[in-house]
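User: Hey, my collaborator sent me this sequence without any context and asked if I could get a structure. I don't really work with proteins. Can you help?
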Amino acid sequence: MSSTVVALELIEQEIDQMKKIIEETEKSLWEVLNQLDCQ
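Assistant: No problem. I've predicted the 3D structure and written it out in structure-token form, which is a compact way to encode the shape of the chain:
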């Protein structure tokens, strides 16, 4: 395993984590928007 491969795998893990955080944030934002629309 070259260090480049290891670095790329770490970056992929970071990206996956970011995607999850973004999805959660998106869900929260939609919920807030829906609540505002309902008022």
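In plain terms: The mean pLDDT is 95. You can pass these tokens on to your collaborator as they are.
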